[in-house]
């Protein structure tokens, strides 16, 4: 009986201390910190399309850079020959690079969609020049579909929203961040592609047989012969399905059925 008031006061003091610095207090504080961190990351990711691309490219660049750094360099980067016959291919690739650089400076959504399609069409020309007309046709079809899709989406959005988004100023951090991320990503892709082309696949009897069939079908590469000759009807049906879907979407857009 005599110790109960003192014991009760001590327990109340321990309870007050637990409320101020106990596990529950730490748990609630950690949740608040994590919630603020999640909101900050969410604001960075969904700010615009460029921020979302950066959020993907940076981790991917770290992984690819690590792979490039630990991969042996012996015979990986071989400089080949160059002739006048390669000039059209170089021009197509330069056009692709120029279109990509122009897109980074555009602000209007329609201009960006057209610029991105220019990148794809330039690559389609490059595919044709290296003897892959099937890949070139697919690239032209996909780029056309994507450009029309972007235009259709922009037509559905209110004009004031597009104007407001285009008028958002570029912050100082993005002026430095975006070019740095783009240059590093381009260099890493160049290293990976260069290393891949420098190390051709070892000879394979099955591959030699396919090469002989490609020559008999008057094709420059095996992929073109397979898609356009051996399974040409299948490829034609696939392209026809995509084309019919495109015509249907265009008809609905013209009649205003998608609004």
Rg result: 29 Å
Number of helices: 11
Mean pLDDT: 76
Shape: extended
Helical fraction equals over 70%
* N to C succession of SSEs: HHHHHHHHHHH
Overview of the molecule:
The termini are far apart. The chain has helices spanning 3-21, 23-45, 49-70, 87-105, 109-129, 133-156, 159-166, 172-198, 205-216, 222-230, 232-255. The protein has two domains: 74-200, no CATH class; 202-259. The protein is mostly helical.
Annotation keywords:
2 domains, extended, single chain, 11 helices, mainly alpha
How are the SSEs ordered, and which strands pair?
Layout: H1 3-21, H2 23-45, H3 49-70, H4 87-105, H5 109-129, H6 133-156, H7 159-166, H8 172-198, H9 205-216, H10 222-230, H11 232-255
Helix pairs in contact: 1-2, 3-8, 4-5, 5-6, 6-11, 9-10, 10-11
Summarize the model shown:
By secondary structure, this protein is mainly alpha-helical. It contains eleven helices and no strands.
């Amino acid at each position: 009986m005599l110790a109960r008031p003192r014991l009760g006061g001590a327990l109340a003091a321990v309870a007050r201390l637990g409320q101020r610095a106990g596990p529950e207090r730490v748990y609630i504080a950690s949740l608040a910190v994590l919630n603020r961190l999640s909101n900050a990351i969410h604001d960075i990711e969904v700010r615009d399309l460029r921020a979302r691309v950066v959020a993907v490219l940076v981790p991917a660049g770290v992984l690819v850079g690590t792979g490039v750094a630990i991969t042996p360099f012996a015979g990986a980067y071989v400089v080949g020959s160059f002739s006048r016959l390669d000039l059209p291919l170089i021009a197509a690739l330069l056009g692709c690079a120029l279109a990509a650089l122009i897109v980074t400076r555009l602000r209007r959504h329609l201009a960006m969609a057209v610029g991105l399609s220019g990148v794809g069409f330039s690559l389609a020309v490059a595919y044709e020049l290296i003897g892959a007309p099937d890949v070139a046709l697919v690239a032209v079809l996909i780029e056309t579909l994507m450009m029309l899709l972007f235009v259709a989406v922009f037509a559905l959005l209110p004009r004031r929203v597009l104007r407001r988004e285009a008028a958002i100023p570029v912050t100082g951090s993005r002026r430095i961040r975006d070019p740095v991320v783009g240059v590093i990503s381009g260099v890493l892709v160049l290293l990976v592609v260069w290393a891949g082309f420098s190390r051709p696949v070892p000879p394979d009897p099955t591959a030699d047989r396919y090469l002989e069939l490609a020559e008999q079908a008057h094709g420059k590469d095996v992929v073109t012969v397979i898609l356009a000759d051996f399974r040409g009807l299948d490829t034609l049906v696939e392209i026809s399905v995509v084309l019919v879907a495109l015509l249907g979407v265009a008809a609905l857009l013209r009649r205003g059925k998608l609004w």
